[in-house]
């Protein structure tokens, strides 16, 4: 493919010629920031957000997976109480594989409310773990809980950073927020960061396999989708495997080795 044609092809896909030239410059070394994934359900936390967490923890940063619900209604054949326990156990096992921690809130699956009680509960967890980076859902979602999580996380980050709001822990300002590339949250999602996850790809996939639904037991082949997506994103960003993220500021498209 001629250079001009190749550049035009990447522009159409959202990378652009500017990103190609900028990507040739090595990133300055900096300490890795702690990271928190805030998801509606445990599966979302690991499938859509787990690879960036795995990458940051592999660089020595602390990582936390926060689930607002256990996703206990996600099985048509297993009672919610039992399935919720399975989801919690799978989340804890997967987090250990990625050298990360877990935190859970107990809102009902499918009924996560959007109110200050939930927002302050999440803000308290942000203040407790002090992440520099938060990854959460994009709000262009077909799932009610995902939209709720986006709104909750957005306000929780704001509340967590306000010193005038007195809680158990002191204020903590999150430096960066990203939205994950989730198959249910695709409406209006526009990637601006392509993160090379090649060093942790296998570990992330192994962690995801702790979940019963990873291989399609619940009707959707998460393993095939997210593996294929990582290959596609890798092709677009000149790495073996990558994930795409979106930032609130809609920054210029960039390729990154860490967040």
What does this 3D model show about the protein?
The protein is of the alpha/beta class and about 260 residues long. Helix content is about 40%, strand content about 15%. It contains 9 helices and 8 strands. Strands 3-2-1-4-5-7-6-8 form an 8-stranded mixed beta sheet, sandwiched between helices.
Give average pLDDT, whole number. 90
The low-confidence parts are 3-28
> CATH homologous superfamily, by name?
LmbE-like
Helix content range = 40-55%
How far apart are the termini?
Answer: 31 Å
CATH fold annotation: Rossmann fold
List keywords for this structure.
14% strand, disordered N terminus, Rossmann fold, alpha/beta, 8 strands
SSE order and pairing:
Blueprint: H1 3-12, H2 16-22, E1 35-39, H3 42-47, H4 50-58, E2 63-67, H5 80-97, E3 101-104, H6 116-129, E4 133-136, H7 144-160, E5 176-180, E6 193-196, H8 201-208, H9 222-237, E7 242-246, E8 254-256
Task: Give a quick rundown of the structure.
With 259 residues, this protein is of the alpha/beta class. It contains nine helices and eight strands. Helix 5 runs antiparallel to helix 8 (201-208) and helix 6 (116-129) crosses helix 7.
